[in-house]
Amino acid sequence: MTARVLVADDDNVVRSIIRAALEREGFNVSENDGSIDVEADLALKGADILVIGAGVARPSAIELCTRLRERPATASLPILILLDARLSEQRIGALSAGADDCMLLPLSPVELVVRIKNILRRLNPAVLQNLMRVGDLTLDIMSRRVHRQKREVKLGPTEFRLLEFLMRSPGRVYSRSELRASLWGDDASVDERAVDVHIGRLRKGISLGKSDKLIRTVRGSGYSLGDY
After folding, report:
1. pLDDT tens-digit readout, 179-200
2. Phi/psi at 154 (nearest 5 deg)?
3. For residue 59, is the peptide bond before it cis, meaning its omega torsion is within 30 degrees of 0?
4. How far is Cα 73 from Cα 88, in angstroms, rounded to an integer?
5. Which of 27, 159, 166, 172 would bridge 202 by S-S if both were Cys, CB 3.0 to 4.6 A apart?
6. Are residues 64 and 110 in the same domain?
7. How many Å apart are CA 144 and CA 84, to the nearest integer?
8. pLDDT at site 122
9. Are 114 and 8 part of one and the same domain?
10. How many domains does the chain have?
11. Taking a C-beta distance cutoff of 8 angstroms, is the pair 228, 134 a contact?
12. What is the rounded distance in angstroms from the CA atom of residue 62 to the CA atom of residue 185?
């Protein structure tokens, strides 16, 4: 399952920055711009973690967190609150209201991603364990879905297994015999040339119709998935 993040903030710029940073890491991001009640939004869309921005006005981020902690459905929902650096003293109030973490603005997208991952590893690690990422390519083991550059990639079952195997060790060069064993085990009836066929199909699928070097052919050795 891809980790779902709901970002609640009245500031369009902040939401856009957060969305871009999280989607690069393979998160499924929804936004709430204040035009709909956050509690209703959570009930409708669901989320694995909620990010409440400093731009939330009515109710305030701390008031919203307090309300969510009082409801059984959201009492254990992971929550990260963004606070205006000028109001850093509110950090204690936010943590007392039940926030799992707080960050001060200006926003560091890299730090935000790290903090969200740390919260999820601590509170709901399953939503991260099934998601694999190499560059702009993400693979969700549970849903069996692959995305590149935010576009879904359609792969056959063999190509999906091949990609999953390559993504486990990006940059490593695998021989054709190793790749054949990963796909078909000890079935000696499968020729190693079948690997070339499926590599070709996989390349075509993830290239999105463009010239692409994500999968390298290493002459005399085999294949490697680029490690960026």
Report:
1. 998 888 877 677 888 999 999 9
2. -95, 120
3. yes
4. 29
5. 159
6. yes
7. 40
8. 92
9. yes
10. 2
11. yes
12. 55
